[in-house]
Amino acid sequence: MTPCWYLYLIRTDGGALYTGVTTDVSRRLEQHRRGRGAKALRGKGPLTLAFHCAAGDRGNALRWEYRIKQLTHRQKEQLVASQSPSLESVWPSLLPGNDG
Predict the structure, then answer these.
(1) Is the pLDDT of residue 71 over 90?
(2) 17-20: which pairs have CB atoms within 8 A and are 24 or more residues apart?
(3) Separation between Cα atoms, residue 40 and residue 11, nearest integer Å
(4) What's the rounded Cα separation, in Å, for the pair 7 and 63?
(5) Which site in 3, 9, 19, 85 is 20 to 30 Å from 91, CA atoms measured?
(6) What pLDDT, in 10s, does the model give residues 3-54?
């Protein structure tokens, strides 16, 4: 059985949003908090989980991660505000030209 992958956004103390993928959001957040995750988050705490949702298999999750990383900070904030369980349902509103 293929594990379900999740896309997540972590908010740093400075307000930046870090995007990643994992099969276990709680475990990964703890890794980041302990400095054992991405170097980009080290020393940026406290870290809070701002958003997460299922993203399918690993390939699909990585594609979504790439797409989300291309968004502006404002568009990422829209995603966080939506707290949508499905990226497909909120994606059109995040596209350039729809961020007003």
Answers:
(1) yes
(2) 17/50, 17/73, 17/76, 17/77, 17/80, 19/65, 19/68, 19/69, 19/76, 20/65
(3) 12
(4) 10
(5) 3
(6) 799 999 999 999 999 999 999 999 999 999 988 878 888 888 799 999 999 9
CB distance 78 to 35 below 8 Å: no
Answer for the pair 58, 52: CB distance below 8 angstroms, yes or no: no
Q: What is the pLDDT of residue 84?
A: 82
Residue that wins the pLDDT comparison between 87 and 69: 69
Hey, which residues does 10 pair with through a beta bridge? 18, 49
Domain boundaries, the chain: 5-94
C-alpha span between 42 and 62 (Å, rounded): 22
Nearest CA to 9 among 88, 39, 28? 28
Task: Please answer whether residues 21 and 8 qualify as being in contact, where contact means their C-beta atoms are separated by less than 8 angstroms.
Answer: yes
